[in-house]
Structure formats: C-alpha cells, structure tokens
Amino acid sequence: MKAMPDSQSIDVVILCGGKGTRLQPVISDRPKPMAEMKDRPFLDILIDYLCSYGFRRYVLCVGYMKESIKEYFTRESRSEKIIFSDEETLLGTGGALKNGELLIHSDPFLVLNGDSFCPLDYRDFLSYYFSKGADVSIALDGKSVRKDYGVVTINDKARITSFSEKTDKKDEYVNAGVYIFNQTIFSLIPHNKVFSLENDLFPHIIDRKVFGYVTKNTFIDIGTPERYEKAAEFINKFVDEGLNG
C-alpha cells in the first residue's frame, strides 16, 4: 500500500463555476457558492472546514460570475493558498476539472462540489482511499432521500458497481459530491468540451478501482430554494457548535 501523504500536500479542487439556475429566484446577484450563511459565503465556510483537516492548497474552478469569488478570496491575506482556474465558457463538472489540470499538482487530489457540504472525517477518507489502492473514491451518503438524487450501488468489498437515476431503493447510496482522484483520471476527460463527471465519466469507469466510502453524516446541498433554506439551518447550527475536524 502506498504511504498516505500529509493533507497539507494534497490539493483540493472545488467546482464552483455553474450557473445555479434553480437557486436564482432567491439568489441572483452572486454565484451559488457565494450564498451567505452566518454572514459569510457558503464557500468560505466549506474551505474553513477543510482547513481544519490541514488542507492548505485550493484550486477554485470558477466560471459564472467568477469575479465575485475572485474578489472575495483575494481581498485579504489568508493562511491557505487559493488559485483560480478560469472557465471562459461553462464546461460542466468534468470539463472544469480538466480545464484546471495544469494547476493541480498533487497525486492524488481531492475534488468537491462548491454547492454542497458533507461533514466528513477527511483524514479517514484519505486513509480509506490509500488502503483500497483506489483509482477513485467517492463519498456516499446513506441517509439522504434517494429519490431526490442520483444513486450509487456498491458490492460487499465497497467497489462501486453502478450509477443509477433517482430511486428510493434502500440498498443504494447518494453521491455526496466529494471525490479523491489520481492523476490518471485526466486521460479520460476531453479537453475544452462540456463533460460531466456524474453522467459522462463515472458510469464508464466502474471496471477500474472505484470505491465508495459510506459516511454516517448527512450530505446537504444548496441547489434549490428549499434545499438552501434547510442547508442554512444546518450550517448555522454546525458553525455554532464548532466548525473543526
């Protein structure tokens, strides 16, 4: 088994370039990850949580209303290093990741969606990835309502066996939008094309070493007004109780 590096040496890629069309009825003056909670952007709270696990280098894949994100994260000195990967046209989750390839130095690296949050133990998640000798590990939530999200099935070895449409079966898990990839993944993503990790990549790589990491914690996202309201309640309580890993 390859030795697990310190989290300070792992790059964190956050996908925050989408339009967030469904949330625009309540938040239209900023990109979705900049939605305010506890008088701070959601994205800032997410990065703070990751910093509590020792991560220090962040690549933010920005697109829609990107200046809002860039201005906020460059206007004051920060202990972590933040780099921006700019999309001139929106490329989807996979296309955005490929667009930032040259800025992502570590192998493996962590990828998160900038509009969702799952309070993982990231040290354990990294340890799991290395213990499995995985190409990809995906954090899975077994608690969220499956009919609201795409779902994943795993076998008794925790290898992912399928990616499915929204269902309500009891033996399936929700993709929590947190991934560990090694650098070989870039060879599977086309350059400068719209490409989705969820739809165009994951269903086609289950013959590789792709493992699901099942968390007991609940995944939240801010993709709709209703989910945003629930997420704000969760984050407010979470921050009040202490945001650390």
Identify the notable features of this structure and list them briefly.
245 residues; alpha/beta; Spore Coat Polysaccharide Biosynthesis Protein SpsA, Chain A; 24% helix; globular
Kindly describe this structure:
The two termini are about 25 Å apart. The radius of gyration is 17 Å and the shape is globular. Strands 1, 4, 5, 6, 8, 9, 10, 11 and 12 form a nine-stranded mixed sheet that branches. Strands 2-3 form a two-stranded antiparallel sheet. It is of the alpha/beta class.
Short synopsis of the structure:
By secondary structure, the chain is of the alpha/beta class. It has 6 helices and 13 strands.
Write the layout of secondary structure elements.
Layout: E1 11-16, E2 36-37, E3 40-41, H1 42-51, E4 57-62, H2 66-74, E5 81-86, H3 92-99, E6 109-113, E7 116-117, H4 122-132, E8 136-141, E9 151-154, E10 160-164, E11 173-181, H5 197-201, E12 210-215, E13 220-221, H6 225-241
